[in-house]
Prior knowledge:
This protein is an all-beta fold and 115 residues long.
Amino acid sequence: QVHLVESGGGLVQPGGSLRLSCAVxxxxxxxxILGWHRQAPGKxxxxxASLSKSxxxxxxxxxxxxxxxxxxxxxxxxxxLQMNNLKPEDTAVYYCKATGSSEYWGQxxxxxxxx
Length: 115
């Protein structure tokens, strides 16, 4: 059974940092594109960053480029999203997604950026 479990969200002031984690079980990381998505209130869920199946070639949306970093640790089967210089518009529920022969989502973790 596949599980993706996010953690690391919370309340942070503008300009602050958070690191999100996504613990993956039940699938082989090299068989899936791993990505982080987010959904703000009243908006559609959107892709913000992803890693190819090899764990290389990160992709970022332009509005997080230079501020967010996606990475993975194969030993612990964990995908990370390091978020720096956070802005109020980054406030959203953040989701981890695995895309391959099937798609799997985590339950999400809330990130709130406010002073």
